[in-house]
Amino acid sequence: xxxILHPLCLAxxxxxxxxxxxxxxxxxxxxxxxxxxxxYGFSALSYAVSLTPVWIxxxxxxGVPNIVVPIAQGFVxxxxxxxxxxxxxxxKPPAEARRRSCGLLVAAAGVIAAxxxxxxxxxxxxxxxxxxxLYYAHDPVFQAYVLLYFGVYSAAExxxxxxxxxxxxxxxxxxxxxxxxxxxxxxxITLGYSGIRIAAIIGAETGFSVSxxxxxxxxxxxxxxxxxxxxxxxxxVALRAAGVRDWATAHLRHRRLAPLWAALDQAxxxxxxxxxxxxxxxxxxxxxxxxxxxxxxxxxxxxxKLMRRYLDPAVRAEAEARRSAAGLAGAELxxxxxxxxxxxxxxxxxxGDPVEAPAEYADADLPLATTEDELRHLQxxxxxxxxxxxxxxxxxxRAAADxxxxxxxxxxxxxxxP
Length: 418
What we know:
The chain has helices spanning 2-24, 31-50, 52-62, 68-91, 94-120, 132-135, 140-170, 174-206, 214-256, 258-267, 279-285, 290-306, 313-325, 330-351, 371-384, 391-411. It is mostly helical. The chain has two domains: 2-246, Up-down Bundle (Rhopdopsin 7-helix transmembrane proteins); 257-397, no CATH class. Helix 1 packs parallel to helix 9 and helix 8 (174-206) packs antiparallel against helix 9 (214-256). The longest helix is centred in the middle third of the chain and has 43 residues, at 214-256. The chain is elongated, with a radius of gyration of 36 Å. The chain starts with a helix and ends in a 7-residue tail after the last helix. Residues 393-418 have low confidence and may be disordered. Keywords: Membrane, Transmembrane, Transmembrane helix.
């Protein structure tokens, strides 16, 4: 059972450590984050050295049978202290949290030292990667070792379960409350692991055996610890997922505004202070589009101002009637009419035909109080906007129309011949 569940636990703990280490680059002074990152790091180490192939190699390297036991369990004691440290920094004032953290780490060091002394007093004769606890259950020194380790383990997991359940009831963020409840469930399940190990010591003295529960003990320990790790990681993953969603949304918005911006930029390149880099290249490099998106918003609005001289009142009236007949109303109607006005203004601009008494944009009176409101509105405008034909195509079209008009006029002249 151990070698089935430990690799999964190792993968989860290692992944959590790598995720949090990346955040530490920007938040090195956050003590809760540092403690949480090292919680996953030491947890991963405890699982790694406990794998049977690694266990055998470590024993061979040090030349001491089962030396992995105090190594792995020492890592676990550190993990328990760091978990309590995280809770202290989450729930206590900074000064009190620091004092409690120092006390917890000193206590952990004391427990590890006592475990090392007791283990050194044992005389293990053979490597026992799967049943070490049961094999030495009759040894009085090992009994003291087990009672020390699993007594501390049970007390720490009980404290973790009670604290997380209490904090979950007062947490304002639903994802944090959910994650703390998962940690609570995981901590309670791990008590099955410590309970069976303590029962093995009691049974060795009173005459009953729990050897048939050895696999269940490993399952309780690994499943409970995995739930605890997942619970601690949920807020970080949720925050990272929100960041990825914001990153993707900004790129998508930037892309959707491209046709509207390009048409205005082509009409007057002066609206663009800095030529944008290729968005595809930015996506591949993981760059954010938040600042380019804000710049694009400003440039589109500047382009609208420059096109103000070409707004034909008749175009607005016709667009309002047509769009209203199509069922649009409110902000959507204003966005659609504005899009039609911009297109017509671009055509007039290309022809050099300003309006003597220009109209207002249909969106001029919209209540766009925030940048987010304005970005949403421009997205609607861009969705209704149809770019005008390229300048060369418009010139060719006007030339063809002029030729046709001239031919028609010539054939209608008296005395003309085909």
